[in-house]
Amino acid sequence: MRILVVEDEKKIAGALKNGLEAEGYQVTTASSGEDGYFCLTTEEYDLMLLDLMLPGRDGIEILTTIRSQGITTPILVLTGRDTVEDRVLGLDSGADDYLVKPFAFPELLARIRLLLRRGNLEPQHLLKIDDLEVDLLSHRAVRSRLPLDLTVKEFELLAYLLLNQGHIVSREMLAKDVWQVCERSTPLDNVIDVSMARLRRKVDGPFEKKLIRTLRGVGFCLGGEPQ
Amino acid sequence: MTSRLGIRARFTLLYGAALIATILMVSGGIYFFVQRALVGQIENHLRKDFATIQEYLRHDPASLFKIANHGPILLFSIRDNGQQLIASDNWNTANLEQLAAERPAAENKFIVQQHYGVSYRLVNSSMSIPGHTYQISVAHDEKSIRQTMKTLALIILLILPLSMVLSLAIGYVIAGHVLAPISSITRKAEEISAENLSERLPVGGSEDELSRLATVFNQTFGRIEDSFNRLKRFTADASHELRTPLAAIRSIGETALHQPAGRGDCREAIGSILEETDRLRQMIDSLLLLSRADSGQIELQRETIDLASLAQESVELLHVLAEEKHQTIRLSVDRSVIVSVDRATIRQALINLLDNAIKYSPVESVITITVGHTNTNESYISIIDNGIGISQQDITRIFDRFYLVDKGRSREVGGTGLGLSIARWSVEANNGRIEIESEEGRGSDFRIVFPASNVQ
C-alpha cells in the first residue's frame, strides 16, 4: 500500500513516514502543495495525507484541483484548525476524512485502515482472537468456551477492540466510536479507564494469557505483539 | 457653544441669569405696586376733598372762600351753570379752569392731564341743591408721585448692574465651591492606573450627590481591581498548571536519557511523556473553549430537550465511576422537564458537576439528582452529595479558572481546574444559572436552574 504524505513541517513529516513505514506502508513525502500534486498526478497512490496549511498553494486549493481532475484517491486531511467551518470546508472540497492536530497516531492508523478498506469491507458478525469469540448479532462473548457476563458498554468496547485487533486503540477513538462523544473530557477519560479495567477483569482476569494490553500514554490493544 | 464652556462658567451664567430675572421681576413688581399705592392715596385724598366741599356747600358756603385762600384744599373750583362761582387761588394760578372745562363729561372719574408741564389728577362732579346745579372740580398735582417713582426707577437702575456683577461673582464662587470635590475626584482618578488600583477616590462625609458619585466610582474601581486580580491570578495559575506537565515531560526525558537503561524503561518514560502531553492538550483545549466562549465565538443550537432524560444519560455515562467507589446515584424525576437549550453544552455542564460530586464524595455515599420545577416555574437539576463540601470563602471562587480548593487532593483525583468554569459558562450561555448550597464537611447541592422563559 502506497501513501503520499504532503506536510511541510519536517518533524511531523518524518514522524508520519517512520510510523507508517513501521505499519508496513510505503511512504513518499512531499513538502509543498505543488510537489504533492505533481507526485499524485505522475504516480499511483492508494491514499494521500494532506496538511491544509501549506506554503504556496494551500491545501484546499490542491484538494479542489485534484478532485476537478477526476482523481479519486482517498484523501485524509490533517489540520490545526478545528472549527466546524474548517471541517465542512475540507470535506466539501473533496476530502474523505478529517483529523485535527495534534492527533493520536493510533487514530490516524485506524482512519487510514478504514479509508483503504472502504468499499471492500465484508460485514462480519463473528469475531475471534485466540480463545475469545464474540458474536455481534447475538451479543454473546465467550472465552475458553466460558460465557462472559458483560454489560452493554463492555460488550461494545470488546467488539471495538476486536474489530481493531492487533492495532492500538486510543482514548479518542473510544470516546468517539464507542461512547459517541466528540469532545474529550476528564470525566469521560475516567469512564473509559474504569470501563476498560472492568472489561479486563472479566476477559483476562481468570486466564493465564492476557489479551488486552495498555500502552501507557497511547491507548489499548487487543492481541498482537507489543510494538 | 455653551457646551464648550466649562461647567463652572455655565453654572455662573445660569446662576447670574436666574438672579437677574428674579431681581427684574421683583423690582418691576415694586415699581408697579408703589405707583398704584401712591395713586390710590391721591384719589382717596381727592374723594375726601370732594366730600368736604359738598359739605360746606350745603351748610356753610361762606367758609369756602376762606378755604380757597388758605387751604387745606389747594385745587378746587365750583361752577354754577358754567360760570365760576369760586376757585382756590392755586386753581386760578395754575389756570385749571380751562382744563376742567375741556373735560367736563366724566362724572366722578379721575382724569390725568398734562397742563403747562405739570400732571394733574382731576375729578369733576355735579351736585344739585334745590334751585341750583353746581359743577365741582377737585384736582391734585402728581409732582410728588412723579418724583418718588423717578427716584425708585433710579434706585432700581443703579441696583441692577450692581446685583448683576455681584450675582455673577457669587455664582462663580459657589460653582467653584460645589465643583471642588469634582476636581479632586478628577485629580485622584487620573492618578489611578493598573499599578495602584487599590487606591480610592476621596468620599466627602456628607451624603450628597458627589460623595455618592465618588462611592459609585470607587465601587467600579473595586470591580475593576477584582477582575484585574482575577486575571493576574488566572495568568499565574494557568502558567503554573501548564508548566507542571511540561516540567514532568522534561524531567522524565532527561532522566531517561541519562540512564543507560533497557528498552522497557525507555518505553515507560515515553508513555509517561505521552500521558503528560495528553494532559497538556486537554488543558489547552479547555482553555481554547473558554476563550472562544469569552469572545462569543461559540454558536449554540437551541433545541427542546428533556432535562430528565439528559440527567438519565449523564448518570448512565458516569455510573461506572460511582460504582468504583461503591456510591449510589439516586435519580428522582416525577415527570419530564422540557427546556430549550443547547444539548451538548448543558450535557457537558451536567457531566462536570456530577463528576465532581462523585470525586469529592466518600465511598459508599449517596448522590441524589433531582429534576423538576420550582414554585416560580423554573426548571432545575439539583445534584446533592454528602462529600467534603466547600467553605464560604471558596464558594465565590470555585468557578474561577484553575481555582482548585485543595491543590493536592485535586491533583490526586485528576482534573484541570477548568471543569466548573466550563460548566458555569455552558449554563449561563443558555440563560441559566448555577446555584450552590454547601457546608464544609457536610456536602454540597449544585443546582442548574433555567428560567421559565427557557421552557416551551
The N- to C-terminal Cα distance of chain A equals 20 Å
Low-confidence stretches of chain B: none
Q: Oligomeric status of the shown chains?
A: heterodimer
Average predicted confidence as pLDDT of chain B: 82
The spatial strand order of the largest sheet of chain B comes to 2-1-5-4-3
The ordered H/E elements of chain B are: HHEEHHEEEHHHEHEEHEEHHHEE
Number of strands of chain B: 12
Helical residues, percent of chain B = 55-70%
Largest interface: A-B, 20 and 29 residues
Instruction: Quote the distance from N terminus to C terminus of chain B.
Output: 55 Å
Number of strands of chain A: 12
Radius of gyration of chain A, rounded?
19 Å
The rough form of chain B would be described as rod-shaped
What is the gyration radius of chain B calculated from CA atoms?
50 Å
Principal-axis shape of chain A equals elongated
Report on the structure:
- The complex is a heterodimer of chains A (227) and B (456).
- By secondary structure, chain A is of the alpha/beta class.
- Chain A has helices at residues 10-22, 33-42, 59-68, 84-92, 105-117, 152-163, 171-177, 186-203; strands at 2-6, 26-30, 47-51, 75-79, 97-100, 126-129, 132-135, 140-143, 146-147, 168-169, 212-215, 219-222.
- Chain A has a five-stranded parallel beta sheet with strand order 2-1-3-4-5, sandwiched between helices. A four-stranded antiparallel beta sheet of chain A has the order 6-7-8-9, covered by helices on one side. Chain A has a three-stranded antiparallel beta sheet with strand order 10-12-11.
- In chain B, a hairpin with a 3-residue loop joins strand 11 (433-439) and strand 12 (443-450).
- The model of chain B has no long low-confidence stretch (mean pLDDT 82).
- Classes of the chains: A alpha/beta (227), B alpha+beta (456).
